Amino acid sequence: MTHAIEIADLHKYFGQNEVLKGIRMTVDPGQVVCVIGPSGSGKSTLLRCVNLLEVPTKGKVFVDGVELTDPDVDIDAVRRRIGMVFQQFNLFPHMTALQNVMIAQQRVLKRGKKEAEVVARENLDKVGVGAKCDAYPAQLSGGQQQRVAIARALAMNPDLMLFDEPTSALDPELVGDVLTVMRKLAEEGMTMLVVTHEMGFARQVADRVVFMDGGVIVEDGEPAQVIGDPQQERTRTFLHRVLHPEE
Ligand SMILES: Nc1ncnc2c1ncn2[C@@H]1O[C@H](COP(=O)(O)OP(=O)(O)OP(=O)(O)O)[C@@H](O)[C@H]1O
Ligand SMILES: [Mg+2]
């Protein structure tokens, strides 16, 4: 079976600073893999290398068997199959929710206005903000804005979704709505690579949890293993800090 994502000996330098130091991992179709780890450990850089928002310095990245790091690859074609959701929702402030979900469909996929609108409404309904089609981002809560951003990604019919701390910017009471949408996507079989500190989500939804520290993968295994019974001291220390921040 072809992996949905295969990362082979990935290194990334920013100047002299080696931020990813030989990452190897795979994500299979339909799997949900959560990446956890301290600030600065390279989680966002790893995700950004998977859709070439960052260019790897060394190593290979494959998406559905297509090598992204091959200089001859049609990167726009590969990127169209990958949805990305960021901590900051990055909606266009001067466009309504509906327009935000239509625009890339029209520009990138060349869908007509009617079709783009139908697809946008379907996806806004799916994430529970169908009633907010005509609202501008400033008129929406953070949780609603993030769900519009998810709808925008889904409207492009991606094979794969990357999430970079999608709930970190949200007030605590809004986190659940976004996680519910992500859980539903996972249940529908979407392949997902998710950077998150939501350990409940990782435990319940992830097939695997990857703990990164200092640009390397320290542990990679089932959630019950990595979160419930970590083998490495670094993992235990990190989890303790996340699960007991008040101490
Ligand atoms: N564009 C860039 N130019 C230079 N250095 C960068 C750049 N992006 C990231 N870095 C550095 O790479 C390292 C890893 O950053 P990265 O954002 O991947 O960490 P992270 O694990 O996502 O952290 P956080 O949990 O805070 O989001 C950090 O030392 C950061 O300063
Ligand atoms: Mg980050």
From TrEMBL:
Under the heading SUPFAM superfamilies, the entry gives:
P-loop containing nucleoside triphosphate hydrolases (SSF52540)
CDD domains assigned to the protein according to its UniProt record, in alphabetical order:
ABC_HisP_GlnQ
Q: Which UniProt keywords apply?
A: Amino-acid transport, ATP-binding, Cell membrane, Membrane, Nucleotide-binding, Transport
- Its main localization is membrane
Q: How does it sit in the membrane?
A: Peripheral membrane protein
What EC number(s) does this enzyme carry?
7.4.2.1
> What is the catalytic activity of this protein?
a polar amino acid(out) + ATP + H2O = a polar amino acid(in) + ADP + phosphate + H(+)
Subcellular localization is given as:
Cell membrane
Specify the domain of life of the species encoding this protein: Bacteria
One Gene Ontology cellular component term attached to this UniProt record is: plasma membrane
Which PANTHER family does UniProt cross-reference here? AMINO ACID IMPORT ATP-BINDING PROTEIN (PTHR43166), GLUTAMATE_ASPARTATE IMPORT ATP-BINDING PROTEIN GLTL (PTHR43166:SF9)
In which family does this protein belong, per the annotation? Belongs to the ABC transporter superfamily.
Q: What is this protein called?
A: ABC-type polar-amino-acid transporter
Report the source organism: Nonomuraea jabiensis
